[in-house]
């Protein structure tokens, strides 16, 4: 019976580091250009998991196995959510087209209120999907951090610190992302409750300060928190991927 080929752990870690460097760059570009670039990140991340799978063949640590499982689950949830969201957006677009095609070119208040409620409800569902995916992501990076701690002897001094910090930063990033989207859900729920009433007001009437100011305050509090947590989460993500990218400098054993 033939023996499986020996795994070059350092080489696989080096390849993993190169892919983390790619993920880091694409994550930055996705903010500047388009979130669609995140699809490339998903592909690269899946490829990086292959390297970790081969490392698991040489170092069968349960934390590494859990890392692969959690990240894969998170990615699948993200893909499912993305596909569902596209389908729903198309459905809403069709509905709005039909609603506006009533002969007068206008949409009645009831239809508009319905569209807004459906749209915001779907947005809430999308946020819940993201939160669920982020929970698995956070757990996965935590597992990788455990693996790096358990097998610190594989790395050199500075590199050991970098990979442990990198996985720790990513764990924090996804914890903050969970908080970000929870606050987003709160804001969307508030809008679902208040927007229909505002729409139903006569177009010529003014919204009284007694209604408008408290509404803005209620929305501004979680809104400000959302911006802060998102920026902090994004910063930790970039730092995390950057630190893990240092693995590309590890010396591959011959």
List the helices and strands and how they pair.
Layout (H helix, E strand, L loop, with lengths): L8 H24 L5 H21 L3 H39 L8 H42 L6 H44 L8 H36 L10
**How is the main sheet built?**
none
What spatial form do the alpha-carbon principal axes imply? Answer: elongated
- Gap from first CA to last CA: 25 Å
Summarize the helix and strand pattern as letters: HHHHHH
**Residue share in helix:** over 70%
DSSP, total strands? 0
Beta-strand fraction estimate: under 5%
* Unreliable sequence segments: none
Mean pLDDT comes to 81
**Multimeric status of the protein:** single chain
Q: Kindly give the count of domains.
A: 1
Q: How would you classify the helix and strand content by structural class?
A: mainly alpha
List the total number of helices.
6
Alpha carbon gyration radius: 23 Å
What would your notes on this structure say?
The structure is a single chain. The mean pLDDT is 81. This protein starts with 8 loop residues before the first helix and ends in a 10-residue tail after the last helix. With 254 residues, the protein is mainly alpha-helical. The protein is elongated. Helix content is 81%, strand content 0%. It has one domain. Helix 1 packs antiparallel against helix 6.
Keywords:
254 residues; 6 helices; elongated; single chain
Short description:
By secondary structure, the chain is mostly helical. It has one domain (9-249).
């Amino acid at each position: 019976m033939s023996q499986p080929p020996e795994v070059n752990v350092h080489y696989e870690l080096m390849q993993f580091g190169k892919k983390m460097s790619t993920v880091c760059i694409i994550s930055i570009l996705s903010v500047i250009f388009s979130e669609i670039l995140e699809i490339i990140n998903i592909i690269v991340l899946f490829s990086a998991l292959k390297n970790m799978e081969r490392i698991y063949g040489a170092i069968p640590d349960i934390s590494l196995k859990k890392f692969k499982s959690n990240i894969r689950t998170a990615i699948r949830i993200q893909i499912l959510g993305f596909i569902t969201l596209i389908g729903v957006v198309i459905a809403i677009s069709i509905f709005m087209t039909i609603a506006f095609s009533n002969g007068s070119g206008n949409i009645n208040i009831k239809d508009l209120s319905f569209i807004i409620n459906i749209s915001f409800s779907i947005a809430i569902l999308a946020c819940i999907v993201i939160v669920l995916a982020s929970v698995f992501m956070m757990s996965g990076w935590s597992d990788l951090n455990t693996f790096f701690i358990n097998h610190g002897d594989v790395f050199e001094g500075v590199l050991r610190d970098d990979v442990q910090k990198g996985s720790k930063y990513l764990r924090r990033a996804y914890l903050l992302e969970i908080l970000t989207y929870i606050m987003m859900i709160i804001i969307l729920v508030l809008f679902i409750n208040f927007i229909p009433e505002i729409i139903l007001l006569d177009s010529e009437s003014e919204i009284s300060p007694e209604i408008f100011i408290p509404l803005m305050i209620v929305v501004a509090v979680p809104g400000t928190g959302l911006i802060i947590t998102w920026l902090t989460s994004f910063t930790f993500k970039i730092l995390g991927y950057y630190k893990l990218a240092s693995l590309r400098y590890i010396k591959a054993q011959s």
